[in-house]
Amino acid sequence: MSTDTTGTGTTHRKPVHLAVYDTLADWEPGHATAHLARAGHEVRTVGPTTDPVRTLGGLRVRPDLALAGLRPEDSALLILPGADLWDTGDDLAPFARTAREFLAAGVPVAAICGATAGLAREGLLDDRAHTSAVSFYLAATGYRGGERYVDADAVTDRGLITAGPTEPVAFAREILGLLGVYEGEVLDAWYRLFHDSDTEAYAVLEKAGAL
Questions:
Q1: CA distance 58 to 75
Q2: End-to-end alpha-carbon separation of the chain, Å?
Q3: Strand 16-19 with 11-13, pairing
Q4: Is the model's pLDDT at 160 over the cut of 60?
């Protein structure tokens, strides 16, 4: 996703924004952010403030910017990882509200694990196909989108990607496909390599220069 912001024909790729907050599940966004960065996408972290946060794994992360300073027009994608805080209060509700702003502006959002519950509470899953850990996890939020739940590794519908906590590779597959990092057989090979350890997929990626 590139935009000419110079008026001279030069393209400028907008950064991808990764939300970071206390109790963030380290394993969930890693495949996506690593391969986005390797493909030349800038990944910037956005926190509740610019104060450091600590992940479930104990990593200390200082956000690049505060949520209040994030605008959809400045971003290619917002990634919302899971975190214990999604289920223990309203601390992360502002991130769900920001996701609403992104989707309304036509900028995609990717949510995994507990973040899907946050979006359910915000009403963003009521009219989109989606998935999560299990259907009854989202049902407990009281949302109205139960009929749109799909039992799949990851789902993309109208700019919104959702996945459960055990599917970080499928989550990344949807992100990489949505942003055009990999497509077709290359995207399929990437998934087979990192999800299934399919050694035959390596040759496809090597031939495409995707390693």
A1: 28
A2: 20
A3: unpaired
A4: yes
Q: What are phi and psi of 201, to 5 degrees?
A: -70, -25
CA quadruple 46, 48, 54, 55: dihedral positive or negative? negative
Among candidate residues 25, 46, 113, 117, the one labeled active-site is 113
- Tokens matching residue 65: 């910017």
Q: Are 187 and 177 in contact (CB under 8 A)?
A: yes
pLDDT in tens, 14-64: 999 999 999 999 999 999 999 999 999 999 999 999 999 999 999 999 999
Strands 154-157 and 77-80: unpaired
- In angstroms, how far apart are the furthest CA atoms of the chain? 52
Beta bridge partners of 211: none
- To the query of whether residue 102 is one of the catalytic residues in this protein, the response is no
Percent of the chain topping pLDDT 70: 95
The secondary structure of 79-127 as a DSSP string is EE--BGGGGSSSTTHHHHHHHHHHHHTT--EEEETHHHHHHHHTTTTTT
pLDDT value, residue 12: 72
Burial class (CB in 10 A: 0-12, 13-18, 19+), 198: middle
pLDDT per residue as tens digits for the range 44-56? 999 999 999 999 9
Q: What is the DSSP letter of 67?
A: G
Cα distances (Å, whole numbers) of residue 197 to 65, 149, 174, 209: 36, 29, 18, 19
